[in-house]
């Protein structure tokens, strides 16, 4: 009961904590450059619609549907709707009801009742049009049959972009060696997001190639491998965690080779979840890694469920030390293999793919495409093979240690 009391105390203090924190100026809505429109003639049936909101600055947001009645819900980070009437939005009469406003510190919500079940066909944030400053959020929805009407499950499912609980078998108790360790490999970027680029070199293609080589070595060593992508497709960042969880992965490794201004960084580095990471290079990388999901319409910066925040932090008290342990094994094996690392090889960052509370997770920057030495390493077959072998050995040692600790915890 002690932890439950702690949760309740934290929840009671939450509004005050959130309101006292410093934050940037809020975005506002320009109704003269915003609208709701419908396609085709009104024949008394639901029609495709497009919602356009022009904002004073880009913001993270999340889109989902609810039923009873059918509703489109859009949660925005850092928008001030005060002084702006939803009823004044051009095209408002196309839907039964429309409302918006602040629903918790730092978050605002738009709710649009719909004339029937719909599906989201487009969600994009781009520079404002028509000479306006700021950003344009464009959402296109189309009517669908009831069986194709996908609504949000619960707070945790929406937070992580997960299947509903009925669709995914819960993770088994912490692994103790009864089955092969299952590793989720996540080649960064892909599709419309090539990642860092230097000339004809793209981070997305390079990481996919390395992931395939690492998969082969891991499989020969007796591990099971789950890939978040096997080709040049874009997978939303938090969907990558969904894939890992649905496949009951024991360890999540995201692979990257980013870019920073010349001289800012070189060498391999390992990142773990730390929302307070504040060094400039880490912030730049976090912005680069998450930018594609912002454009795709996904909020990557938090949750709309205060209890979920607290409970996930409680889960991380057990998971995070396991991530730290893996990072230590990895540094040791890379040193043995003679792989050059960053002067601070293990670091914290607010990368979205590291937010999973229940799977030990790391993001490995194999090097930086902007550094000539790193670039040469990334194309050197011998370096790639030694790095893959060292990572495989680190996974093996960590798996043995983690299983042994799990047995002790159960006694």
TrEMBL record:
Q: Which domain of life is it from?
A: Bacteria
Q: Tell me which SUPFAM superfamilies the record gives.
A: Zn-dependent exopeptidases
Mind listing the UniProt keywords for this protein, alphabetically?
Hydrolase, Signal
* Catalytic function, reaction form: Hydrolyzes the link between N-acetylmuramoyl residues and L-amino acid residues in certain cell-wall glycopeptides
Matching InterPro entries, A to Z?
AMIN_dom (IPR021731), MurNAc-LAA_cat (IPR002508), N-acetylmuramoyl_amidase_3 (IPR050695)
> What are the boundaries of the signal sequence?
1-18
| Record keyword Disulfide bond present | no
The protein's enzyme class:
hydrolase
**What's its EC?**
3.5.1.28
Give the protein name, as stated in the record: N-acetylmuramoyl-L-alanine amidase
Q: Which organism is it from?
A: Paracoccus methylovorus
């Amino acid at each position: 009961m002690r932890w439950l009391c702690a949760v309740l105390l934290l929840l009671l203090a939450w509004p005050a904590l959130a309101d006292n924190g410093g934050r940037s100026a809020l975005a506002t809505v320009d109704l003269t450059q915003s609208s709701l429109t419908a396609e085709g003639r009104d024949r008394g049936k639901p029609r495709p619609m497009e919602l356009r909101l022009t904002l004073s600055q880009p913001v993270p947001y999340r889109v989902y549907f609810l039923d009873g009645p059918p509703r489109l819900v859009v949660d925005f980070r850092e928008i001030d709707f005060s002084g702006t009437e939803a009823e004044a939005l051009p095209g408002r009469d196309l839907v039964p009801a429309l409302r918006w406003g602040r629903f918790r510190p730092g978050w605002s919500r738009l709710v649009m009742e719909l004339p029937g079940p719909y599906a989201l066909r487009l969600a994009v944030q781009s520079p404002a049009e028509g000479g306006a400053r700021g950003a344009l959020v464009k959402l296109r929805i189309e009517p669908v049959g009831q069986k194709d009407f996908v609504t949000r499950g619960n707070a945790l499912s929406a937070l992580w972009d997960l299947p509903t609980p009925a669709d995914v078998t819960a993770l088994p108790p912490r692994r103790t060696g009864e089955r092969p360790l299952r590793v989720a490999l996540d080649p960064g970027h892909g599709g419309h997001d090539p990642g860092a680029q230097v000339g004809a070199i793209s981070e997305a293609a390079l990481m996919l190639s390395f992931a395939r080589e690492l998969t082969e070595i891991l499989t020969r060593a007796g591990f099971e491998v789950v890939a978040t992508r096997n080709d040049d497709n874009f997978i939303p960042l938090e969907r990558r965690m969904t894939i890992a969880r649905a496949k009951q992965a024991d360890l999540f490794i995201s692979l990257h080779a980013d870019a920073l201004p010349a001289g800012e960084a070189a060498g391999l580095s390992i990142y773990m979840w730390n929302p307070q990471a504040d060094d400039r290079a880490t912030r730049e990388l976090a912005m680069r890694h998450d930018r594609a999901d912002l454009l795709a319409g996904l909020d990557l910066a938090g949750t709309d469920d205060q209890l979920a925040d607290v409970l996930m932090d409680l889960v991380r008290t057990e998971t995070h030390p396991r991530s730290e342990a893996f990072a230590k094994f990895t540094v040791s094996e890379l040193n043995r293999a003679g792989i050059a690392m960053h002067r601070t090889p293990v670091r914290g960052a607010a990368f979205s793919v590291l937010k999973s509370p229940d799977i030990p997770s790391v993001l490995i920057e194999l090097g930086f495409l902007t550094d000539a030495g790193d670039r040469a390493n990334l194309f050197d077959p011998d370096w790639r093979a030694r790095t893959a072998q060292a990572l495989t050995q680190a996974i093996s040692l960590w798996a043995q240690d983690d299983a042994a600790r799990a047995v002790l915890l159960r006694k």
